[in-house]
Amino acid sequence: MARVCQVTGRKPVVGHKVSFSNKKSKRRFLPNLQTKRFFLAEEDRWIILKLSTDAIRTINKNGLITIVNELRAKGVTI
Questions:
Q1: Is the model's pLDDT at 66 over the cut of 90?
Q2: Which domains does the chain have, with CATH numbers?
Q3: What does the buried/exposed string (b/e) look like for 27-42 if buried means 16 or more CB atoms within 10 Å of the residue's CB?
Q4: 24-32 own/partner pairs: CB under 8 Å, 24+ apart
Q5: Average pLDDT in the 43-60 region?
Q6: What's the predicted TM-score (pTM) here?
């Protein structure tokens, strides 16, 4: 599975690792992804989402059913 958040769409970005002598070499910055299990009370079932920690905070703020409805509107199967 790709390292992409299902809610925010965050994915790895490329940058430089800079040493003390200011030499630059390529590196990847990976998003902080967590596999999280939520209980969807409206459908009486558990769902598993691959989320960034920012997306987990968004779900806590807006509610799970709101986020699930937005994902389904985009065409994501849950």
A1: yes
A2: 13-74 (2.30.170.40)
A3: eeeebebeeeebeeee
A4: 30/3, 31/3, 31/4, 31/5
A5: 96
A6: 0.83
